[in-house]
Design goal:
heterodimer; A: 227 residues; alpha+beta; 2 domains; elongated; B: 585 residues; mainly alpha; two-stranded antiparallel sheet; two-stranded antiparallel ribbon; 19 helices; 6 strands; 63% helix; globular
Chain lengths: 227, 585
């Protein structure tokens, strides 16, 4: 009888507790953080949106697909795969890393590719990425590109599928293509790459990266939008 | 491997220890009722909460009463969360469902609810394609606080049982949980969430953005109150990402700096609790000894993982990639690199956190075997908040017992005799988690319904077994990280339409988590109750010391031995095979 009473008392306390704590931790706390963030860091809190001419062109820290839709020459229609248009890299822009999302660089449905280390599927995927990269850049790279020269980040799928960065080595190889296609001096492309390269966190944590969206926007400013 | 990679790992260990020492001191003050500087800030709301909850914070509870409160509080939380998640559209009036998501199927919700209640945060759903902002903040994030709190207070109760000089009281559950939230989790989360926004995390209630890119393609970008949830997700070793890719998402983990901070924040409370323990026993060396054992095993795991990932994978080499200096970047982000990903991977699997900043399934065989090994050690290398401390204390008692057998004396720990009853409870508490993990893995591997969850598109050969084993091992250890190809929720078009759950995986996983969470809690509290009443005898000449290097070695030996004996055969079939061969499947 006494234990039954104790259980009842605990039940009442638990029920009140869940409601009160939900109010505190699930409503007041996030609203407070939102309020302070929106006042103190509105740019960050809203996703570092980038506008060009009043049009939203992306988030600074979310990777994008800088590709063009592929149009079938015979039918004149946009080629589709699983409900999404097939795209090919646009040579005028720096290209982000391979993405495991559907469609590529989907920032509303992020997912891993989950390629295993000993999987034939993985090898084929990496080989395909290497081939794409060589096809895109090999022609412009002095002496030509081989698989061994392809930067690892350009061949391996990113984790988020929306990695905003590429490695400086990757950017340096793509720079030859960009300079040629855009008729810009290579040194100027390098200068832009340097401007949008961030260092390691605290000077040691992580790796340097080149922010592709910002770099591409700067290219458009330097040599016209080309579109 | 790079110098900076090793430096990151070294600095991580140093900074973690430097921060955990003062926080451990503070925690000891919080749980022994000493005055702290926070009294002035939260003293009033604290007393108000006791009045609302109608509890007398000073009323002591014996282990059974304490356990009863834990169970009933968890049950109430389970029912409430299940209700919130199943009625997502009911809360549309709050304006916190801009994407018009419907609830996930009942079986997925069962799994998710059990997952967040048990501090596991195993996710069969993708956050940004399933959950409304309301579900995330008022449902899931609340349990991120509460499940972490429950873990911590159980550990505190066990400590009180070990050190108590008289009586049967382990403290008062409601008192402890309120103090844990007001004095520890909430203030840390507030500061931390704001740092995350400062670095680039988002915090808003906007609907998803539609972007018109410069090449003419459109992109959708998920939004939400991310930072507030991210903070407690890591501090509470919960690990359930706001987004599907968890801490790999730039909005959850925007920079190399946040990556470092996130790793620290995962380990900070588990590490501090060990120092708190030393203080509460009155002999800080007891805490240092346990901390050393944890740190040694932790660093061992990090070193192996980093070397393996820096080497690269057979698939990379077969494709002709030159991986020197970079390593295996498959499923990793550029801004974190291999070192920042390997370290994160170990941090998240030694604790019960399970947040990931890279795709564990894409780690090399040996790099992927490290999380397996960490999970096999039953989350005692720092472990989850609270769970790590109470779990390793069970191992400490086991080590004391084995040590006692070796020298032929009645084993004693901190002056208390360890007798048959305690050892039985300790053994059960230790073995119940592996039992659940192996039983579920066997069931899932042997049945067609279980194999339906394997990602057949990429997981061939041993990878399929690895996925399955990891799923049930992770859920049993309340970790929540995944070889993410394994699924219990089919979402065609990565959306809500036409989605369905895989009942077998959802239910088995759900029960796996609940059983492996609450059974050890009950055994730990029973041990506490059993020790609480015992007399403390002064240490004599023959008393085995538990605060010296010999004991550290013994403790590590016991943990490794139990883990290896239990899991080695299963590990051989999956990750070890993959690590030993260059063969592609």
């Amino acid at each position: 009888m006494r234990s039954l009473q104790a259980i009842r008392r605990d039940l009442v306390t638990a029920a009140i507790g869940i409601l009160v704590l939900t109010l505190l931790l699930g409503v007041v706390y996030p609203l407070f953080i939102t309020g302070v963030s929106q006042v103190a860091f509105p740019g960050n809190a809203n996703g570092q949106r980038v506008y060009v001419g009043g049009k939203l062109v992306g988030s600074k820290i979310i990777g994008q697909n800088f590709g063009d839709v592929v149009v079938n020459k015979k039918t004149g229609k946009v080629e589709m795969t699983a409900g999404n248009p097939v795209t090919a890299p646009d040579p005028r822009y720096f290209q982000t890393r391979p993405s495991g999302t559907t469609p590529a660089d989907n920032a509303a449905g992020s997912s891993f590719a989950n390629y295993g280390p000993n999987s034939i599927v993985t090898e084929q995927a990496i080989a395909a990425n290497i081939a794409t990269y060589i096809q895109l850049n090999g022609h412009y790279y002095p002496g030509g590109l081989t698989a061994a020269k392809v930067p690892v980040d350009a061949a391996d799928t990113s984790a988020s599928g929306i990695d905003p960065d590429i490695s400086p080595a990757n950017a340096a190889i793509q720079a030859y293509r960009i300079a040629a296609v855009r008729h810009l001096p290579l040194s100027e492309v390098h200068k832009l790459i340097d401007t949008y390269t961030h260092g390691r966190g605290l000077g040691f944590s992580g790796e340097p990266g080149v922010n592709v969206l910002q770099l591409n926007l700067a290219l458009n400013r330097a040599s016209g939008a080309l579109r | 491997m790079t110098f900076l990679g090793w430096l990151t790992i070294f600095l991580f260990a140093v900074i973690l220890t430097a921060l955990a020492l003062p926080l451990g001191h503070y925690l000891a003050a919080v749980y022994t009722g000493e005055r702290t500087f926070m009294d002035r800030v939260v003293g009033v709301p604290e007393r108000f909460l006791y009045r609302v909850l109608r509890v007398d914070p000073d009323r002591g509870q014996d282990w059974k009463a304490y356990a009863r409160s834990v169970i009933i509080f968890s049950l109430a939380g389970w029912l409430f969360l299940y209700f919130v998640l199943r009625t997502q559209t009911l809360w549309d009036f709050t304006g916190l469902n801009p994407q018009h998501f419907h609830s996930a199927p009942w079986n997925v919700t069962f799994n998710t609810t059990s997952s967040f209640l048990t501090n596991t945060n195993w996710q069969y759903y993708g956050g940004e394609t399933t959950m409304t902002y309301f579900s995330q903040m008022a449902g899931l994030a609340v349990q991120n606080f509460l499940s972490a709190g429950v873990g911590i207070v159980v550990a505190v109760a066990l400590v009180r049982g070990i050190i108590s000089r008289s009586g049967k009281s382990l403290g008062n559950f409601w008192h402890d949980i309120v103090r844990t939230i007001l004095y520890v989790l909430l203030p840390l989360s507030i500061v931390y969430a704001l740092i995350l926004v400062f670095q680039g995390s988002i915090q808003n209630f906007s609907s998803y953005l539609t972007v018109h890119g410069i090449t003419g393609l459109t992109q959708q970008i998920g939004m939400g109150p991310v930072a507030s949830q991210e903070a407690i997700k890591l501090l509470g070793t919960n690990g359930g990402g706001f987004f599907n890719v968890n801490s790999a998402h730039p909005f959850e983990n925007p920079t190399g700096f946040t990556n470092f901070l996130e790793m620290i924040s995962v380990l900070i409370i588990p590490a501090s609790l060990v120092f708190m323990y030393g203080r509460m026993t009155g002999n800080r060396r007891q805490g240092y000894a346990i901390y050393s054992a944890m740190m040694i095993m932790f660093l061992g795991a990090v070193i192996v993982a980093y070397i393996a990932e820096a080497h690269g994978s057979p698939a990379q080499h077969a494709a002709g990639l030159h991986t020197a200096g970079v390593g295996n970047l498959e499923g990793k982000e550029q801004r974190f690199g291999t070192a920042g990903s390997a370290l994160f991977d170990v941090v998240t699997t030694v604790t019960s956190c399970g947040a990931v900043n890279s795709a564990l399934e894409s780690f090399t065989g040996i790099g992927g075997a490290v999380p397996f090994a960490n999970l096999s050690a039953s989350e005692v290398i720092f472990g989850g908040v609270g769970t790590g401390l109470y779990s390793i204390l069970l191992y400490v008692l086991l080590a004391v017992f084995l040590g006692g057998l070796m020298v032929g004396r009645t084993p004693e720990y901190l002056g208390k005799k360890i007798e048959a009853r305690e050892i039985k409870l300790v053994s059960l508490g230790i073995l119940i988690t592996p039992l659940a993990a192996l039983f579920c893995t066997a069931l899932a591997t042997a049945s067609k319904a279980g194999r339906a969850s394997i990602d057949t598109a990429v997981a061939h050969g041993p990878q399929g077994f690895s996925e399955t084993f990891y799923a049930y091992l992770s859920q049993a250890n309340n970790n929540g990280s995944a070889f993410a190809g394994y699924t219990g929720f089919v979402q065609p078009n990565a959306g809500n339409l036409g989605s369905h759950g895989i009942t077998f995986a959802n239910l088995l996983g759900g029960f796996d988590m609940i059983f492996a969470r609450y059974a050890p809690i009950l055994f730990a509290l029973a041990v506490a109750g059993s020790l609480a009443g015992k007399r403390i005898s002064p240490a004599g000449l023959g008393t085995m010391r538990t605060d010296n290097p010999t004991f550290v070695v013994l403790l590590i030996g016991v943990i490794v031995l139990v883990g290896a004996l239990t899991f080695f055969p299963a590990l051989l079939l999956g990750p070890i095979v993959q690590g030993l061969t260059g063969h592609l499947y």
